[in-house]
Amino acid sequence: MTINHTSISRRSFLQFAFAGSAALFAANMLDGCSSSGSGASEDKSAARSICFVEVVENDAFVAMQEGFKDELAAQGFTNVTYEVKNAQGDTSTLNQIASQLKTESYDLIVPIATPAAQAVTNAELDTPVVFISVADPVAAGVMSSLDTPDKGATGTSNDLPVDEVYAFGTELYPAAANGACGILYCSGEANAVSGAEKMHAHLDELGVECIERTVTNSSECQQAATALAQQCSCIYVPVDSVVQSAMTLVTAAALESGVPVFGSDPVMAASGALCSVAVGNATIGAASADMAAKVLTGTPVSEVPAEVVTDYERDVCQETADALGVVIPDDENIVVL
Predict the structure, then answer these.
(1) What pLDDT does residue 13 have?
(2) Which stretches of 126-280 are DSSP H helices?
(3) Could you tell me if 276 and 244 are in contact, meaning their C-beta atoms sit under 8 angstroms apart?
(4) Contact 37, 302 (CB under 8 A)
(5) Which residues form the signal peptide (predicted)?
(6) By C-alpha distance, which of 228, 334, 222 is closest to 275?
(7) Mind listing the pLDDT tens digit for each residue in 56-112?
(8) Quick check: pTM over 0.85?
(9) What is the pLDDT of residue 56?
């Protein structure tokens, strides 16, 4: 009886040990799956899908996308499928796009500029979000603090130096400082409103009269620019996807009155603004890609602080400079377009 008792105990022990090991293995497997997150993998060559979201298409956004793609590829992410969702300038369509993302499968959502970032963040997606070029993420409501993203989104900010824009513009064309400065922007874009407020405050400090004119869509831009050019010595356009999409019309209208436009994006200078002081679009796209690389390899969005990119470049439009009689300084820090 003693021998039989010992044999039964050993058998029971082995059965118990096997069951325990199996349970531990299963638990470890489940833990490994839950900690990896959607699309998060240390293997950079793994297939991934990324969706860009934009309120409208323009050359600046295209350059941002290319900068993002190039940097992500440079970091070893060579098996990425990209898609672009464009709201064609319609806010309600943008919100629909953001809502539909809840039922679509992507490893990362990349909204470009403030309107898209707001729409995507408000949709409260489970998919991680890394935005590109939001002027003031906190004021826009996409996070409560730059240091601790708390709404599922992080990314880059392009808080532009309005003081440098005005100083550079009036240095190139001193007559621009002889009268009021007009500000043209879309009242429906939070980033544009923020940029206009900052320039207005700066002009107040300088004692320069400021005249603002707002638009709600791109079809209103030419008429607004014509009106401002008749009242002002120069016109400033903040970061604004609506006005930027009509920039050639804005600059042409201003030039008819001999008035320069000071821009906040290199594409604005390429579209006829006399000058711009801004972060290069490919540069800020690459900065967001650097953050995206961390998220794609498992770092929670909440642990990737937003970044204010300040690598500014100064751009001048040669054609507009010639039209205004401006001699562009021989300066290696100036990009002539």
Answers:
(1) 38
(2) 162-172, 190-206, 221-229, 241-244, 247-256, 266-270
(3) no
(4) no
(5) 1-26
(6) 334
(7) 888 889 999 999 999 999 999 999 999 999 999 888 999 999 999 999 999 999 999
(8) no
(9) 87
Instruction: Name the nearest CA neighbour of 261 among 238, 241, 237, 280.
Output: 237
Strands 307-308, 312-316: parallel, antiparallel or unpaired by DSSP? unpaired
Q: For residues 326 and 172, is the Cβ–Cβ distance under 8 A?
A: yes
pLDDT surpasses 60 at 55: yes
Q: Which of 87, 78, 19, 23 is nearest to 55 (CA)?
A: 87
Q: Identify whether the C-beta of residue 243 lies closer than 8 Å to the C-beta of residue 186.
A: yes
Domains of the chain in start order, with CATH, are 48-158+280-311 (3.40.50.2300), 162-278+314-336 (3.40.50.2300)
Query: Are 335 and 301 a contacting pair, CB within 8 Å?
Result: no
Q: How many CB atoms lie within 10 A of CB 301?
A: 22
Q: Are 228 and 213 contacting, i.e. CB atoms less than 8 angstroms apart? A: yes
User: Do 143 and 308 meet the contact criterion of CB atoms below 8 Å apart?
Assistant: no
Q: What is the pLDDT of residue 157?
A: 94
pLDDT band at 41 (very low <50, low <70, confident <90, very high): low
Residues 167 and 150: their CA atoms lie apart, in Å, by 37
Token readout for 78 is: 């060579």
**Whole-number mean pLDDT of the chain?**
88
* Region for 88 from its dihedrals, namely left if φ exceeds 0, alpha if ψ lies in -120 to 50, beta otherwise: left
* H/E run at residue 31: helix 2-36
Q: For tokens 């500029």, name the residue.
A: 113
Two structure tokens written together for 65: 């996308």
Classify residue 244 by burial, with Cβ atoms within 10 Å: 0-12, 13-18, 19+.
Answer: buried
Q: Choose among 185, 147, 180: nearest CA to 265.
A: 185
What gap in Å lies between CA 232 and CA 129, rounded to an integer?
41
Enter the DSSP assignment of 123: T
